[in-house]
TrEMBL record, chain A:
The lineage of its organism: Bacteria, Bacillati, Bacillota, Bacilli, Bacillales. InterPro entries: ABC_transporter_permease, MetI-like, MetI-like_sf. It comes from Paenibacillus borealis. This is ABC transporter permease. The keyword Transmembrane helix applies. Belongs to the binding-protein-dependent transport system permease family.
Automatic annotation (TrEMBL), chain B:
Residues 1-21 form the signal peptide. SUPFAM superfamilies: Periplasmic binding protein-like II. This is ABC transporter substrate-binding protein. Keywords: Signal. Pfam families: SBP_bac_1 (PF01547). InterPro entries: Bact_solute-bd_prot1, SBP. It comes from the Bacteria.
């Protein structure tokens, strides 16, 4: 930046030296031009709303009335006098803890099956990935509601085995589980990334190890998992962030019920903002979620050095 | 190489244009949000200066309802466009589920449709938040019942017109009851009769069929019971929690009994009920015999199982249990750019006899008395049953009130939570009462 301004000052009294001007300017200008779309989008659609919401979180803002600065009162209220905050945070943490490992395990499992060289494998891959394209949509949520309803297909299926079903989505014990199952089923993009990672593992490692007498189990834990750990690390972080923000299925399928068993944090936030119009309060809730996500990510990154293995690492695990 | 370069620059241009467009949109949104407080004034100014007719106008209109109501409303919109070729419509219609969420979100973004259908219960909120435009003088309300108009007024100004009047009562599966040999109820029956009939039906009901829904934690049904006991409104007009503890415990304990005797559905089935949904409505599915209903809703169930259902007044005790209320309101949102045209349409929709012929009674018996008389003269059998409930409720029915503003969430969320906890047996009537009372505190002013 500094260099550019000095160039401008030098260039001003010598306007005719346009070639000099251009040659010194072209490179950075083109660079800025190329990142401009992203930069403008980021500033206008991410940074500005982000900090505006930080500002709102210190106000009492109901959209229809002028906003009032109330300092940290929103935060105080959330932490001291808001049972719904505690309830929804609890549900969300449970959801994250249950859905993330299950989803990763399912994605890895399917990726390993699909990494085999079988005839027509790409057709299988497409077929298995396909549901994830429409996974987060309202339509699938509605479908899920019908599958697990009292008269749903799932109950008819287990009735064949003589098991009497119930309304899974309207029982407090099973509702969250049903939503977790929906998330696990949407493993497609995670699976694709795993698949790419699996393809990168050199085959010689497996060959060499099998010569040394390693079984499938040993190979999985000694070769596949360590070699895949950077990918696992990435998928873990993405899945955690996604799980914290879970909204659609809880909103459409169960509407937070029954007995608030699926009342996830994002739903509570939505309710405060758009049915009670308490935008200041909702902004404060949003910032708490942001801090929670950042904290979770930092914790994962911190532990990553104990279990993520990079090929460039000389000694495998970096324990010092 | 050259080709690659060219396609890259095309790509870059597209990206830039795309971002600029998105950015423009974002900027507008932010401006609107920031100018929210100034908006009413500017809208009024726009309304008075807007050309009154001739210019092509597209009005967005949003309502909820069942299929027959959608069809009738669409037909009315077509008719209006035929008479006023410059006005066309962009209808947004759906079931009740999620309607308020969608509308609230749009309103929060200053993007509500020009014309909105509102539930009487929401009116205090919407008027207090100044989200509606005054309808006078374009909309003529001289033919309307004063009692129905009051719900759409604030500080003497009319912000919404009632579309019809309906009676709150019960619907029952007459066909199933006749088959099972259970006596039909009669208008004017009491809550004692209701619970006695439930007991009587116990021996006759087959497995998987129940007398009524689990209404222990239902806001509307409990309101009807508290009224019948002479204890007044559950939430007073000045915004106070007014649940009579003794009456509430009496009510929840009676349903506790029905629950243990298997006369109401198990909790998970009860929670899966969705009124008027052909698949999930437990009355339509033949699982329950009784549920509450408004007099104009019979048509929806009848379309699922023709001729099977009948209406009866809400059971009474010392006082009547049911009431008449405006079915719903129609209003113009404050950010409408065509407020003038929207008001003209509403005036036609509620006052024109031709419009009444098209819209029939799908929003209740028209609130415009002339139109009501016109429709009564040649009514279908189904509408006559609804009218029967209306007339039976009229003489000593309770006075309906929109209540205080700001309690919508209390009714939609807090009562539902208590309902689930009661029906899943996770709380006692005493705890439920305490919980409601505590939840109410954050709504009381």
């Amino acid at each position: 930046m500094n260099r550019s301004t000095t160039t401008l000052a030098e260039a001003a009294p010598l306007p005719r030296k346009s070639s000099y001007f251009r040659s010194r300017w072209n490179a950075p200008l083109a660079g800025y031009l190329f990142i401009a779309p992203w930069l403008i989008g980021f500033l206008a659609l991410t940074a500005y709303p982000l900090f505006l919401s930080l500002y709102y979180s210190f106000t009492d803002y109901t959209l229809m009335q002028p906003m009032q600065w109330i300092g940290s009162r929103n935060y105080e209220r959330i932490f001291t006098a808001d049972p719904k905050f505690i309830q929804s945070a609890k549900v969300t943490v449970m959801y994250v803890l249950a859905s993330v490992p299950l989803k990763l395990a399912a994605a890895l499992f399917v990726a390993m099956i699909l990494s085999k060289a079988v005839r027509g494998i790409s057709a299988y891959r497409t077929a298995i990935y396909f549901p994830s394209l429409i996974g987060g949509s309202i339509g699938v949520s509605l479908l899920w509601r019908n599958i697990f309803g009292v008269e749903g297909i799932f109950n008819k299926l287990i009735a064949v085995f003589g098991i009497e079903g119930k309304s899974w989505i309207t029982s407090p014990d099973t509702a969250l589980g049903t939503l977790i199952l929906l998330t696990v089923w949407q493993f497609g993009s995670t699976m694709v990334i795993f698949l790419a990672g699996l393809k990168q593992i050199p085959n010689d490692l497996y060959e060499a190890s099998s010569v040394d007498g390693a079984g499938k189990r040993t190979q999985f834990f000694r070769i596949t998992l360590p070699m895949l750990s950077p990918i696992l690390y990435f998928n873990l972080i993405m899945a955690v962030i996604g799980a914290f923000q879970m909204f659609t299925s809880a909103f459409v399928i169960t509407n937070g019920g029954p007995m608030n068993s699926t009342y996830v944090y994002a739903m509570y936030l939505y309710e405060r903002a758009f049915s009670r119009y308490e935008l200041g309060y909702a902004s404060a809730l949003a910032w708490i979620m942001l801090v929670a996500i950042v904290a979770a990510t930092v914790v994962i990154s911190y532990t990553s050095k104990y279990w993520v293995f990079y090929e460039t690492d000389t000694g495998g695990k970096q324990r010092k | 190489m050259l080709k690659w370069k060219r396609s890259l620059s095309v790509l870059a241009m597209t990206a830039i244009l795309g971002t600029l467009a998105a950015c423009g949109g974002g900027g507008n949104g932010a401006n609107n949000a920031g100018a929210a407080t100034a908006a009413p004034a500017s809208t009024d100014a726009a309304a008075t200066t807007a050309p009154s007719s001739g210019e092509p106008v597209k009005l967005r209109i949003m309502w909820w309802g069942s299929q027959p109501r959608h069809e009738a409303t669409l037909a009315a919109l077509d008719l209006y466009t035929k008479n006023n070729p410059n006005v066309t419509f962009e209808p947004e219609y759906s079931g009740m589920d999620g309607y308020l969420d969608k509308l609230s979100t749009q309103a929060a973004a200053n993007n509500a449709p020009d014309i909105v259908q509102l539930d009487p219960g929401w009116m205090p909120d919407w008027m207090a938040r100044k989200q509606l435009t005054e309808l006078a003088p374009e909309v003529d309300v001289s033919k309307f019942d004063e009692k129905l108009l009051a719900g759409g007024q604030l500080d003497g100004k009319q912000y919404a017109v009632p579309l019809g009047s309906v009676a709150f009562g019960m619907v029952y599966d007459k066909a199933a009851m006749d088959k099972l040999g259970i006596a039909n109820p009669a208008n004017g029956w009491t809550w004692d009769d209701f619970f006695a009939l439930a007991k009587e039906s116990q021996a006759k009901l087959p497995d998987g069929q129940y007398f009524t829904l689990d209404y222990a934690g239902n806001y509307f049904m409990y309101s009807a019971y508290q009224y019948a006991r002479g204890k007044g409104q559950v939430i007073t007009d000045d915004g106070h929690f007014n649940v009579d503890e003794a009456t509430y415990l009496e009510w929840t304990r009676k349903f506790e009994e029905l629950r243990t005797e298997g006369l109401v559905p198990p909790a998970d089935v009860n929670a899966s009920d969705k009124e008027n949904d052909p698949q999930m409505d437990l009355l339509a599915a033949g699982k329950v015999l009784f549920r509450y209903s408004f007099s104009n809703n019979l048509g929806t169930w009848d379309s699922i199982k023709p001729g099977a259902y009948a209406l009866v007044t809400m059971p009474r005790a010392e006082e009547a249990g049911g009431w008449l209320k405006p079915s719903m309101f129609l209003a113009v949102s404050k950010n409408s750019k065509h407020a003038e045209e929207a008001k003209k349409f509403i005036n036609w929709f509620v006052n024109d006899p031709e419009a009444a012929q098209v819209t029939q009674t799908f929003r209740g018996l028209p609130a415009n008395k002339d139109n009501a008389a016109l429709l009564e003269a040649n009514m279908s059998e189904l509408d006559k049953i609804g009218l029967g409930l209306l007339r039976a409720t009229e003489p000593d029915g309770q006075t309906w009130s929109a209540g205080a503003g700001g309690w919508t969430n209390f009714v939609d969320k807090d009562w539902v939570l208590v309902r689930d906890q009661l029906s899943f047996g996770k709380s006692t009537p005493e705890e439920a009462y305490k919980q409601l009372k505590e939840a109410a505190q954050s709504y009381e002013k």
